[in-house]
Amino acid sequence: MTTTFEKKIKILQEKFFLSFSQTDVNNIVNSFIFLTVSFDLRISEDEVRQTIKRIKADKASNISDILNKALQTSLAKLISILISLFNACVIHRYHSKQFKKAQTIVLCKSKKSDYTDLKTYQLIALLDIMSKALKSIMTKRLSNIAETHHMLSDAQMKARRK
Question: Which of the two ends of the chain, N or C, has the fewest CB atoms closer than 10 A to its terminal CB?
Fold first, then answer.
């Protein structure tokens, strides 16, 4: 069992900060299909309202210290500000530095006999609530576009509707 602080740090570094070699992509055939898809860039009030309501109210606080429940409770007063903020991000293709920040914590899984085994640790990333909301809206939109225009292989099953 690892007892020193330095040994524990080394184990965690090896587990969570792996080094990756460059992938060779020279053997990929140039077989791209270009499809022009038109859609409205503006994010609607409905999209924002549904997304904020879907967020779990009792989840851990994020790095901006905006509680999910507080955002949901004050949504009626904040909706126009959120719509403006999200639309500005999409139209200007800008993702705020604040949205990119995450606080990652490492949890030890309980009742494990050997904490030198890297599988006994779990990473939890706390992201900004605004980033989560915008990402959720954009993910739903991209998913709808991909499904509507049959852009995914029939073999692609994970995370697809139906």
Answer: C
DSSP annotation of 123? E
What does the pLDDT look like over 81-97, one tens digit per residue? Answer: 999 999 999 999 888 88
Name the residue with higher pLDDT: 155 or 71.
Answer: 71
* Cα angle value 16/143/159 (rounded, 5°): 55
Whether residue 49 has pLDDT greater than 70: yes
Model's pTM, two decimal places? 0.66
The one-letter code for the residue type at 73 is: T
Q: How far apart are CA 63 and CA 102, in angstroms?
A: 7
Q: How many angstroms separate the CA atoms of 66 and 101, rounded? A: 14
**CB contact at 8 A, 101 and 125:** no
| Contact predicate 79/45, CB 8 Å | yes
What are the strands, taking DSSP E only, across the chain? 102-108, 121-127
Residue 22 has pLDDT above 70, yes or no: no
Task: Collapse the DSSP code of 80 into the 3-class scheme (helix H, G, I; strand E, B; otherwise coil) and give the result.
Answer: helix
Sign of the C-alpha dihedral, residues 161, 138, 63, 124?
Answer: positive
**What pLDDT, on a 0 to 100 scale, did the predictor assign at position 46?**
96
DSSP assignment, residue 156? -
Measured between alpha carbons, how far is 39 from 26 in angstroms, rounded to an integer? 34
